[in-house]
Amino acid sequence: MLADTLTITYNAVSVTLNKIKEANYSSTYFAENSTGKFTLDVKHTVPAVGADGESHVVKLTVEYFDSVSGAYLKSCSPWFVVKTFDAPQNSTDAIRAANALVGLLTSTFVTQIVGRQS
What we know:
Number of strands: 7
Largest sheet: 7 strands, antiparallel
CATH architecture: Beta Barrel
Number of helices: 2
CATH class: Mainly Beta
Oligomer: single chain
Low-confidence stretches: none
């Protein structure tokens, strides 16, 4: 089970998210500050007995609001999916692949992706 609070760093500021929901292989965390609202969802999809492949999804949604009027402006929602096939589940291999991908997600690379480069 994940902790009841998780801390992320957003724009060089620590944001502590509190668990607000946990059920059916999923959890939701939430925090709000002057920057916006932060929702972190963690979900696991477990296949039927005998079927291959599990999905493990982490999604951070940041909603931005006007600092004066409080009006909603926009949102951004990066997702991270770890899909595993074949038995047994192996966190070592998943960690290696995840770290390789995270290392690629630099500011320059994300700017290129958002700019629709492929």
